[in-house]
Write a structure and sequence with these properties.
- This protein is of the alpha+beta class.
- It has a single domain, classed as oxygen-dependent coproporphyrinogen oxidase (3-Layer(aba) Sandwich), CATH 3.40.1500.
- Helix content is 39%, strand content 27%.
- The strands form two sheets. Strands 1-2-3-4-5-6-9 form a seven-stranded antiparallel β-sheet.
- The chain is globular.
- It starts with a helix and ends in a 6-residue tail after the last helix.
């Protein structure tokens, strides 16, 4: 039987799917919509748009996983002697728009519950956040992105935004390249200083704010003309996104360690990305401009 918590996450997933789907038609893209379950316990729904008129790829995933052995990525957060089983649920979203002037975006919200041998709840926490990875910087979009995030969090704690924005900058950083992945946003984990009810309300607000902020940017930039060179640059820089997800992302590690569904875990990767040893002048010029823009601080 699904819990009230799971229904909240499923409702957020459905809302995002409905909004993203309005940008495509039945003939403009390939859609995969799979409900799945695992023999070890739990299941979810994976919704993916591919090769669309608006999205090169977008994935909106819900999962609820149960298990008896805590993944390595979760141990150390609770007393192991108390922890007997866990339940992890959440929604994760990734967009890779076709137009290079619309950024890649990412959002996830999640809840982790830990039970003792008597099936009593002994610990819990929530996590999540969202970030933006542009290829061509529009400063007004970046400022508004951060302003919306602050308004979202101020409703729960006026100190959250600065802490979570700093977390985001530190987390979404490619140390092997000494580069930020994007212009940031918010990121939090292991949070339980609010009640469970207020924590879930905050997660819903994070999800709704992300969707509204991303689609506001998308609507503003969707008719911007672009060339094949612009597209090549977008796919080259998408390679950084792939590197982060496969090398550094804790969510990817958790999914693999907890026996998650591989197809769903890797659905966040773009359909096309590229790496080149010798960059041309166009790539060099636009990458220098982008990296300069990524170093700016767009929050207040």
């Amino acid at each position: 039987m699904k819990t009230e918590f799971e229904h909240i996450f499923e409702s957020q997933q459905k809302d995002i799917i409905d909004k993203f789907s309005s940008y495509e038609t039945a003939d403009s893209c390939k859609i995969s919509d799979n409900t799945w379950s695992k023999l070890s316990g739990g299941g979810g729904r994976t919704f993916v748009i591919e090769e669309g008129a608006f999205f090169d790829k977008a994935a909106v995933n819900f999962s609820s996983i149960i298990g008896n052995k805590l993944p390595d990525s979760a141990t150390g957060l609770v007393e192991k002697k108390e922890a007997s089983s866990f339940k992890a649920m959440g929604v994760s979203v990734i967009t890779h728009p076709k137009n290079p002037h619309i950024p890649t975006s990412h959002m996830n919200i999640r809840m982790f519950l830990i039970f003792n041998k008597k099936k009593e709840l002994v610990d819990w926490w929530v996590g999540g956040g969202y970030d933006l990875t542009p290829y061509f910087i529009y400063e007004a979009d970046c400022i508004k992105w951060h302003k919306d995030a602050k308004t979202c969090l101020d409703a729960f704690n006026s100190g959250y935004y600065e802490d979570f924005a700093k977390n985001c900058d530190e987390y979404f950083f490619l140390s092997h390249r000494n580069e930020k992945r994007g212009i940031g946003g918010i990121f939090f984990d292991n949070l339980n200083d609010l009640s469970i009810g207020e924590s879930l309300k905050m997660l819903q607000n994070v999800s709704n704010t992300y969707t509204k902020s991303f689609l506001s940017i998308a609507n503003k930039r969707k008719d911007t003309k672009f060339t094949q060179k612009d597209k090549d640059f977008q796919e080259y820089r998408r390679g950084r996104y792939v590197e982060f997800n496969l090398i550094l992302d804790r969510g990817t590690r958790f999914g693999l360690q907890s026996g998650g569904r591989i197809e769903s875990i890797l659905a966040s990767l773009p359909s096309k990305a590229s790496w080149m040893y010798k960059k041309n002048a166009f790539i060099d010029k636009n990458e220098a401009k982008l990296l300069k823009g990524l170093k700016k601080k767009y929050r207040g």
